[in-house]
Amino acid sequence: MSRLLPRANLEGVVAALRSAGYRVVGPVRRGSLVTYDEISSAADLALDVIITRDSIKKFVLPRTEVVARFNRDAAGKVSVLDATAAPQPTVILGCRPCDAAALPIDDLVFAWDSTDRFWFSRREAVRLVTIACANCDESCFCTSVGGAPDSPEGSDVLLTETAAGDYEVQALGERGAELLAKFPGLRDAPAADRRVAAVPQRFDLSAAVTALEKNFESPFWRQTALRCVGCGCCTFVCPTCHCFDLVDEGPAYHSERRRNWDACQMKNFTLHASGHNPRPWQEHRYRQRIMHKFLYYPSRLGRTLCTGCGRCVRACPVNLSLLQVVSDLAAGRANALPTSAGEVKK
Amino acid sequence: MTAPRPADNLYLPHLMIVDAIRDETPDIRTIRLRFCDEAVGKSFSWQSGQFGIFGVFGEGECPFCIANPPTRPGAIEFTFKLAGRVTRALRDLDVGDQMGFRGPYGRPFPIQEKFRGRHLVFIGGGIGIAPVRTVYLECLDRRAEFGEITILNAARTVADLPFAAESAELAARKDVRLILAVDPGGQTPEWSGRVGLAPAILKELAPPAAGAVAVVCGPPVMIKFTLPVLSELEFPAENVYTTLENRMKCGVGKCGRCNVGREYVCKDGPVFTAVQLRGLPNDF
Amino acid sequence: MPAEGRQLEKLRHLARHALESGAVSLVIGFAEGTVPGRAAPLFCTAPADADRLIFDGYCTLNLANYLTRPEVRAHQTVALVARHAVAKAVVGLVQESQVDPTRVRLIAIHCPDLDGLQQDVAWTVADGLQTLDEFLPTAAHLHDQELTPERFAAVAQVESKSSHDRWDHFAREFDKCIKCYACRNVCPLCYCERCIADKNQPQWIDTSSTQRGNFAWNIVRAFHLAGRCIDCGACERACPMDLPLMELNRKMKKVVAERFGYVAGYDPKADLPLVTFKKDDPEEFIK
Ligand SMILES: Cc1cc2nc3c(=O)[nH]c(=O)nc-3n(C[C@H](O)[C@H](O)[C@H](O)COP(=O)(O)OP(=O)(O)OC[C@H]3O[C@@H](n4cnc5c(N)ncnc54)[C@H](O)[C@@H]3O)c2cc1C
Ligand code: SF4
Ligand code: SF4
Ligand code: SF4
Ligand code: SF4
Ligand code: FES
User: Fold this and answer.
1) Given pLDDT bands bounded at 50, 70 and 90, which one contains residue B3?
2) Which site from A204, A243, B76, C40 is most exposed, i.e. has the minimal number of CB atoms within 10 Å?
3) The pLDDT of residue B208 is above 90
């Protein structure tokens, strides 16, 4: 026996959650773009897409947020004000497993010896109702980094589509049970066939990690990154990338210190005031991205910093596919370089 | 208004008041701060080698080492060189103005564990003397615990040598050997110190190396050429210390900006030994 | 062999021969991409690399963007697989003294304007490697098609809105921007070593992705390209948030054409309309 949410009741779930005081967000179509946005009805949900363009990261780490305010009075005296993050209770309905899995991974860095209150207060306010993936595309690779299209990791409630188009529901932990109690119209039903995508294993993660350990200095990086234009596309759509900038902005009498998304791919990221740049070329910046996700982060914090959502692969304007690059590494292509494609004499 | 509690909000600075300003060179300045909230000031503690993130409200923040050692408490000092936006704004501050500070961050020099009972050599180039000076000030304040102390302070020109008055006092002391040096061409007719590059002068000085500790900070080229000289002089690499400087934002291992390989300069550094340095990928 | 297959053979042959003969040391073209809608830039330095070259309707990136990269500048002579938009960007770069025309060759592709929506397009490749001067006459006739009303359909739609609705429209669109700078970084004419968006003394543009920061960035980007944008659409296709950047770029293009009778991308010797002082400027904006 399992608990079943008839598809037609999704509307009731949205209504119930909204009247329980939650902001409900989910994949919403705006023209060509599907992003996570607020919905008022289940009819707003674009559940047919493989995955949204942006990730759920923005609900826990907004692209810009105020961390402190500085008020200067007429006499010039400054008061430093804490920016109180009182996040809105939010349910993400129709989250993907590869998005949900990103949050526990990033918890590690935001709790690393010191606790980032902004992250965790938002984290507390967000509930994830994940829908297991029934379909995947050529850029999905969750199964290669320890995930699965029906993985419950990070979710509070997991919905799995049945052959009849209804959802089998599973509450995870206390938070999940509490949330599920608010779902109207659940019923018991015999276990039915579930629709779960078959995501092929695309590379051997441990082989890729071994290759990274051996290939900090390798022409592979130049060959690979020559086409990289150094934008922040890949890192900004990524659910696990968490790097940020802190800047002061606003009028002199009411300035704000803001935390903004930032990306190791941009050349300013590490540029010193002196003009010295520890990562002067794009190949160095690209290497940092791969090394950080697959070698540094796991070795410091124990988890690979990638859930295989494939967003960076789809979004890259120059089709520099992380999936391809990691597969190449795993296949030993950095050790034994093929043709001279991409090699440039200096 | 309730007093802000930086402990809750990692990015909330302490409110500080500029107590004194001293120009060290045309572009290097020392600012002395006190905590607006005296109670916070009293309970604040740090160790030599740790740094803080200093900020001008509305302009931004940047990292500097805390320039006064814990043996000289009661204030927070930092010595900075004009570089860009925030350092320019810092130069516009007057005594009595307010600014922000958070810290202390990073790992200090292991003075207690590794320096005591040994001969010490300090080498600073340019603004790199700032972190070195914090350590030698502490060691001088605890003079009896160490062997011979040698300090080499090198700058491009005579005008670029900071801490002139303090240096004059040190030069007069019998229990410390201070060498001031400027790059060839940087000397004035009256210059009585050395002329030459730090690595070459160090080689000439050949300070006692057996079991000794060396602290070297300066521009990357200086470090690059000084480390081999130290190893030639047979300083054990695990006793050679330097500080790394990477661009930083958070200071607490979150913003992802300061790593060199697996090491985060803000958490694992900024103090590293030459042995650790050798283990780092070439990414700094 | 179907026509496209013959063209592909010819393209690869030209690239291979250019490398073999030493005429160039690098050919930049496209290889098969890994996702629908995208082709991957390919840097060929060995003749055998040419076998991976392809061309189709997904090859929309503007490869002229790479000419200003230091790694590419290190080459004496470089050939680009160049549809018309790429060649127009080369014109712009030469005009602005960013690229030495004697060090660039084109493997010219003749095809309709690509919008990146379909893979199949009819294309042919020119008979041999061309210099910019050799190429220009073969595309001069396209100048007449630059200002056809179809190209400005989206602009006309925005123009027809009330100023209030227009504000709403752009506020909504700019709100999507996440400041990833992909638009800038793929643009062949956005080559500044230090972009105004990266300068902090003074801070011209708020770096935060707030309404203020986003408006400033999107408008400044478009303004800095006024009279220089060659209408390739690379920026819009790169944008991960699907901002309609060509609405702005084409509006600029239209105004520049109306006011200065100028269309970018045809004459490497022309004066740039917005940086050229003319005594007889009407200067109606100074009241
Ligand atoms: C641990 C540590 C200790 C330091 N101690 C000192 C010191 O005692 N005295 C001193 O003069 N300098 C020191 N520096 C260097 C100093 O932080 C930079 O010179 C300063 O950040 C330049 O800021 P700016 O705003 O004037 O320059 P901008 O070019 O306007 O920089 C903008 C921002 O980039 C960052 N940034 C730029 N350059 C650096 C850099 N080299 N290191 C770190 N962040 C940078 C800062 O966040 C800065 O606010 C130290 C750096 C580190 C990492
Ligand atoms: S690196 Fe790419 S595939 Fe991995 S989590 Fe980030 S966006 Fe997804
Ligand atoms: S890949 Fe780059 S942007 Fe992403 S978390 Fe790692 S260092 Fe930060
Ligand atoms: S602004 Fe856009 S359309 Fe214009 S040249 Fe640049 S990339 Fe091409
Ligand atoms: S590419 Fe799009 S999202 Fe990125 S900065 Fe440009 S307009 Fe904004
Ligand atoms: S300064 Fe932010 S991680 Fe080190």
Assistant:
1) very low
2) A204
3) no
| B18 contacts B93 by C-beta, under 8 angstroms | yes
Name the residue among C203, B112, C175 with its Cα closest to residue A30: C175
Strands A23-30 and A2-5: unpaired
Cα–Cα distance measured from residue B167 to residue B162, given in angstroms and rounded to the nearest whole number:
9
Backbone angles phi, psi at C243, to 5 degrees: -70, 140
Ligand 6 center to B259 CA (angstroms): 7
Query: Tens of pLDDT along C98-151?
Result: 999 999 999 999 998 888 788 889 999 999 999 999 999 999 999 999 999 999
Distance set, CA A10 to CA A15, A36, A122, A183 (Å): 9, 17, 25, 9
| pLDDT category of residue B131 using cuts at 50, 70 and 90 | very high
The residue of chain C with its CA nearest to that of A137 is C35
Torsion of CA C140, C257, C89, A277, to 10 degrees: 170
Confirm or reject contact between A270 and chain C (CB < 8 A): no
- Our answer on whether the CB atom of A241 is closer than 6 Å to any ligand 3 atom is yes
* Cβ of residue A199 lying under 6 Å from some atom of ligand 3: no
User: C59 C-alpha to center of ligand 4: Å?
Assistant: 15
Interface test with A, best of C35, C56, C78 (most A CBs within 10 A): C35
Mean pLDDT of chain B: 92
Q: What is the 3-state secondary structure (H, E, C) of C45-73?
A: CCHHHHHHCECCCCCCCCHHHHHHCHHHH
| Domains (range + CATH), chain B | 6-105 (2.40.30.10), 111-277 (3.40.50.80)
**Residue C286 to residue A14: CA distance in whole angstroms:** 56
Tell me which residues of chain C have a pLDDT lower than 70: 1-3, 285-287
* Residue C201 Cα distances to B59, B66, B85, C63, angstroms: 10, 26, 6, 32
What distance in Å separates residue A263's CA from the closest CA in chain C? Answer: 8
Cα A88 to middle of ligand 1, angstroms: 36
Point out which residues pair with C27 in neighbouring strands.
C44, C79
B244 in contact with ligand 6, CB cutoff 6 A:
no
| Range in A89-103, A276-290, C65-79, C186-200 the model is least confident about | C186-200
Q: Are A64 and C208 in contact (CB under 8 A)?
A: yes
Which chain A residues are within 8 Å of C71, Cβ to Cβ? 222, 226, 281, 344, 346
Q: What residues of B are in contact with residue A117 (Cβ under 8 Å)? A: 8-10
Per residue in B64-77, pLDDT tens? 999 999 999 999 99
Q: What is d(CA C15, CA C2) in angstroms, rounded to the nearest whole number? A: 20
Using the predicted structure, report yes or no on whether residue B237 has a pLDDT greater than 50: yes
CA B170 – CA B162 distance, rounded (Å): 13
Cα→Cα distances A194→A1, A10, A96, A141, C265, Å: 13, 18, 16, 20, 56
Q: ipTM for the complex?
A: 0.92
Alpha helices in chain B (DSSP H): 38-43, 85-91, 129-141, 164-172, 198-205, 220-232, 265-268, 274-278
What residue spans of A20-167 are helical by DSSP H?
97-100, 102-110, 117-125
The secondary structure of A143-206, three-state, reads HHHCCCCCCCCCCCEEEEEECCCCEEEEECHHHHHHHHCCCCCCEEECCCCECCCCCCCCCCHH
Measured in Å, how far apart are chain B's first and last C-alpha atoms? 43
CA distance A49 to A34: 8
CA C241 to chain centre: 19
Name B101's bridge partners.
B14, B54
Calculate how close chain C gets to B99, using CA atoms only, in Å.
20
Cα separation of C111 and B69, whole Å?
Answer: 71
Residue A257, strand partner residues? A68, A248
pLDDT digits (tens, 9 = 90+) for B28-78: 999 999 999 999 999 999 999 999 999 999 999 999 999 999 999 999 999
